[in-house]
Amino acid sequence: MSEPESESTILPALGACVVFTIDPVASLDPETLKDSEAVKACMTLANKPYVGVVAERMGIYQPWNPHNGCMIGFLLQGRPKSIPSKFIESSMSIPIAPMTIRDHPSSRSPLNPSNPLPWNDCYLSTFWSAKVLSPTLMTETPIACKLASDEKCQLDRFLEADLERHDILAAALPSSSCSADSGDAAKEPGAPNPAEHTAHSPSSDLRAMVPAEGRGMLFSSPTDRPAVDDETESVKELIDYIFSNPASEMSITVNFTNDLSTVKELNDPADYFNELKALARIQEESRLRLTSARALAIKEAAELNAKYDEPTINMPLCCLRDLGGVVD
Hints:
Residues 175-205 are annotated as: Disordered. This protein is of the alpha+beta class. It has two domains: 9-194 and 247-272, no CATH class; 202-243, no CATH class. Helix content is 36%, strand content 14%. The chain is built from nine helices and ten strands. The strands form three sheets. The protein has a five-stranded antiparallel beta sheet with strand order 8-4-3-2-10. It has a three-stranded antiparallel beta sheet with strand order 5-7-6, with helices on one face. Helix 2 (36-43) runs antiparallel to helix 8 (269-313). The protein is elongated and about 100 Å long.
């Protein structure tokens, strides 16, 4: 067993096993943040801690931005199950040590983090993941469990292989059958939705993505910076992708900790998505209140104008002259 990393590290670190909790207020859009009723409702939400592995960063880490994004793979426990309605097989799972299940359906050797997990029989799935934002922070709390670079590469290969297998199974079924099965899948409790693999929208302006004070942290001198105008379109898109601001595309903000001892039992990741639904309801209710308030304000303004317009219209010209309303 290796000693936990104790030096100051980025939170969360790539490949680390972390605990995270949704921050409902920080996840609100700017308009909803102005609604005190919505903020109060968010503060009453009960948000559980979840455990996952930092599988990917959303672009390059940007220390000058208040938030950075990452992809989290939820840590699940027990024997993986097949969900035929969603083309998910039990073999589409990646076990992590310590593992007591001898005949694991994946037939894969468990990944070995820097230290064994405090829970037995855990695994990752490409179909249980979430893109999140988190405050840009450094932490002194040691990283208890982390996948080394070779283990992380193995994880990436497994995830990609499972995604390809899922696509093959889905493509083999006629589209009419897929439509019929989708309704049944939605009713299946605890069934994950296959992870969304959407392309990142590249920014058209690299400098808009990287503030002047931040560029010096990446390029030692102005001459070292890429000449974007001279690059091919594909290289431009790559540069724009890695320097893109994740906050422009993501909204769910979470708080991380490396302290795994704060979680005794792993919570069901399905509860995480139920929390997102509750948050979405609060924002929708806020938007309805805002729309209603604006409509009422317009109506009251119109009624007030009508109240003053009617006597003014019927007022004699001599009175209007005295009020300055008529010019000879």
